[in-house]
Amino acid sequence: MQNLPVLPITQVLPRLAQASLQASLTDTPVVLLQGPRQCGKTSLARSVAEPAGFGYLSFDDDNLARAARADPLGFVTDLPPKMVLDEVQRVPELFTTLKLVVDRDRQPGRFLLTGSADVLLLPKLADSLAGRIEVIRLHPLSQVELRQQSAGFLQQLFRADFGVVAASRLGMALAELLVAGGFPAALTRQPPRRRAWYQAYVQTLVQRDVRDLARIAALDVVPRLLELAAGQTAHLFNVSELASPFGVSRPTVRDYLSLLERVFLVDILQPWHLRQISRLVKTPKLHLGDTGVACALLRLDAAALHANRALLGQLLETFVFQELRRQAGSQPEAVSFYHFRHRDDHEVDIVLEQGESLAGVEVKASGTVRAEDFRGLRKLQEIAGDRFACGVVLYDGEVSLPFGPRLFALPMQTLWTPAPVV
After folding, report:
1. Could you tell me which residues come within 8 angstroms of residue 255 by beta carbon, excluding any fewer than 6 positions away?
2. Which residue ranges form the domains of the chain, and what is each CATH number?
3. Are 343 and 281 in contact (CB under 8 A)?
């Protein structure tokens, strides 16, 4: 595969979140590092915390988890001054106790928690530590991390700062990137074994984490639902279409998808809209959390994906969305993500909002770009007015091209690799 990581994958840490984690531990009593299993949370937490004298416990140890559930106050009170508590979602009873202990001693960096389920989707747990906790989302490895590059694309995007650059077409290598995904343990394996790893990964999550989070009568439906969702990644969220093959109700499917969202296997991308404009579509989009997982569920290798242009386009959109989210973790100011769709058939795949600035990204798998590919971006520019910072079409081409004020076509590689100026 082209553009292999510069370092062995075992030496690549999720460094985009590292600076945020170090800073948070200096001024916040409780820091929660959360993201999917096997994305590098424990490695990152220990690399930052152990040199600072933190102890470490993991609630993947069932005996430890049972002890903490039985006496959460006694358990937390007996802990050393600084602790890493790994997989804390398995002991939700601890959150109220952590609040009591932190209120007695607001020392920064008291607890570093990691979690493989999104506790922010449980209001009672999230509210129990409001004002006392900072949450950092960790993703699978980004392309800039794998290549040891700087994450500069978002700064350029919000400044509309793109010069004339040259790159090479990726072609089949682009499909290989999508199939590979970003999970470190998967990337150490050759493609056939990598697919088996992803499939086993999904099965383990369903059998353990999803079962821990909720009692599900038809647990066998969940992996099949996730497979169906993989085929609809980057599509508008259609509950009826997802429910129809399983003979279960729409509310049940919605609940199952919420569980998959909590363990970071799927993401629901909300629409960007203004209340005064009624012609904007307000249906969210569905994205898989990682294209490697999606391709494994769909049993696609790089050759099959490259030949299926419709699926390639969908998965490429998801790939770009997830890469942008991964890079956003290193931004000093938060970036919010949306999609845009107007009833007059104008759409933008990804809308990014930072402060008062708005930017749009359209994704194309082909090597050509035309003026009509900017229809949605121009509509967004018209509606957003002065808030509109920039719009780009990322395509598998060789050169950057201006298409009007603050509108650019860019080679796909500029998303993660600084390209030479012509």
Report:
1. 214
2. 9-137 (3.40.50.300), 143-415 (no CATH)
3. yes
